[in-house]
């Protein structure tokens, strides 16, 4: 009687293949950069954000196809959130509550005659919902999971935050001055840690996606109210709070033990 030798089966991790990861990131950067280049409205205008919806829609399609072909959804945080310690989700919750309060407060400072068109607010939200979806999927989902798998927990999340911050350097294409782009780079690196902390704590992108979308919407709509005569003071206080929450989140992330952000 003969027996066939058995050999260990090599298990391939879903993120072992680096080409699809880099390919998706590169294609997303190209699409978003081209959208800024092709825009006919100034980057700082509400009309630019409204028109940018179609660029974001292309990125959503890219992520849908790439994830379906290469990456199991659950490995990217596309799953229901788990319970988490309050200290890990509180920064995101507080940030959203305050930014929405600032938006409401700014609206009360503008007279009915000077109030911006309310229809534009809904169009802005349409875009920011996709921005929240795409940027969290791309950077707190794909990039974070892949980089942590390749380089370990701490280097992985730092690299994911750097990638997220680097995306905002594309705003140079939209005629943002270099000093402004450098500020956006630092600001988004720190701010991104708030979303990242909530994502890894809940092992899900759901709350970061929603929080990101409503934060961007409230900031953009507040700027419209400021342009119509509202005070800038609450917006400046919000910026300080966001910085402090981001620094707190970075501290929490730095002291987290080695972990896999998401698993099957």
From TrEMBL:
All copies of domain CAAX prenyl protease 2/Lysostaphin resistance protein A-like, residue ranges: 120-217
Database matches in InterPro entries: Rce1/LyrA-like_dom
Transmembrane regions listed in the UniProt entry: 21-39, 51-73, 85-106, 156-173, 185-206, 226-251
Keywords: Membrane, Transmembrane, Transmembrane helix
Top-level taxon: Bacteria
GO BP: CAAX-box protein maturation
Keyword Membrane among record annotations: yes
Coiled coil: none
GO molecular function: endopeptidase activity
Keyword Membrane: yes
Name of the protein in question: CAAX prenyl protease 2/Lysostaphin resistance protein A-like domain-containing protein
Organism: Rhodoferax ferrireducens
Lineage start: Bacteria, Pseudomonadati, Pseudomonadota, Betaproteobacteria, Burkholderiales
């Amino acid at each position: 009687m003969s027996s066939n030798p058995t050999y260990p089966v090599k298990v391939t991790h879903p993120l072992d293949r680096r080409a699809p990861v880099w390919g998706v990131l590169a294609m997303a950067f190209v699409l978003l950069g081209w959208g800024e280049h092709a825009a006919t409205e100034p980057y700082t205008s509400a009309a630019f954000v409204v028109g940018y919806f179609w660029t974001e829609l292309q990125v959503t399609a890219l992520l849908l196809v790439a994830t379906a072909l290469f990456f199991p959804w659950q490995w990217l945080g596309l799953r229901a959130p788990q319970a988490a310690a309050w200290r890990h989700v509180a920064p995101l919750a507080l940030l959203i509550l305050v930014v929405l309060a600032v938006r409401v407060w700014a609206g009360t400072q503008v007279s009915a005659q000077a109030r911006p068109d309310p229809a534009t607010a809904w169009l802005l939200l349409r875009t920011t919902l996709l921005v929240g979806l795409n940027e969290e999927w791309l950077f707190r989902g794909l990039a974070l999971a892949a980089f942590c798998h390749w380089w370990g927990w701490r280097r992985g999340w730092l690299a994911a935050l750097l990638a997220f911050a680097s995306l905002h350097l594309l705003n140079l294409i939209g005629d943002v001055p270099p000093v402004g782009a450098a500020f956006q780079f630092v600001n988004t690196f720190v701010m991104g840690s708030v979303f990242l902390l909530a994502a890894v704590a809940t092992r899900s992108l759901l709350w970061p996606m929603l929080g990101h979308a409503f934060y961007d919407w409230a900031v953009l709509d507040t700027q419209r109210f400021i342009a119509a005569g509202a005070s800038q003071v609450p917006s400046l206080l919000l910026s300080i709070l966001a910085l402090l929450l981001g620094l707190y989140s970075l501290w929490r992330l730095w002291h987290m033990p080695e972990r896999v952000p998401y698993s099957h």
